[in-house]
Prior knowledge:
The chain is mainly β. The protein has no helices and 16 strands. A five-stranded mixed beta sheet has the order 10-16-15-12-13, with no helix packed on it. Strands 1-3-6-5 form a four-stranded antiparallel beta sheet, with no helix packed on it. The protein has a four-stranded mixed beta sheet with strand order 2-8-7-4, with no helix packed on it. A hairpin with an 8-residue loop joins β15 (203-212) and β16 (221-231). The termini are far apart.
Amino acid sequence: PANEDPFIVNNPNVINALVDAGGVYELPLQGIDNDGDQLLLEVTGDGFDPAAYGMTLVEELLVPGEVKKTFRWNADCSLYDFSRQQTFLVTIRLSDNSDCSFGQPDSLQLRLTINTPANNRPKLTFDKLASTELTVGIDETVSFDVLAQDLDLDFIRLTAVGDGFDLADYNINFPGNTGVKEISSPFSWRLSCNTISLEERSTFDIYFIAADEGTCGKAMADTVRVSINVLPPTNDAPEAYIQGQQEDTIRTFAGTRYTLM
């Protein structure tokens, strides 16, 4: 049977758009079919689900021979994860429900790119720590403060991990912290023979990490390693002496009892 193909009004075939992160992009769409057939206007993504990234078609009119919808992209980074993909190829497809399914659909391609602002890396600093490589003896205490700052006022998470060991296994105290702009956390460790075996490990590398949540999933982090070299405890040789006796030679009479303390 005779059938005219449906068409998208003022179809440019391809649209390239740059959308600011956190913004909303809208494109009004109108489909016409001169035969008065029922129309279907749908959206598909090239290798992704449009709904998973906040893309929808809002229906405004659907009558035989005409359809109106608005393509809407809510590029809200707090709702959708844009860390793995920032450019999206979308196809808008218009087809009619004609007798025997004759006719060709019309299509429009959208190449959408999300524009994310620059994200400064958070900065780690230390207070009361002269060097990031320390030499400490057992039975001594090492303590300092770890500070993290983010110029973008992003949410920061301050953590620490041991290289090949758990901090808790050695009674290393570092609670960490979370917050915005500036945060800090104390570090303290009382080295003890009860937890440290120098035959097994004498150097402890600890990585301090300040990570922000960034914008649209582009998180940044600053990592600093602090190495703590452990020495055996100080052990002075015992000293023997005779109480009240300065000289090392004693003269006395035979048969006399002499007591030394």
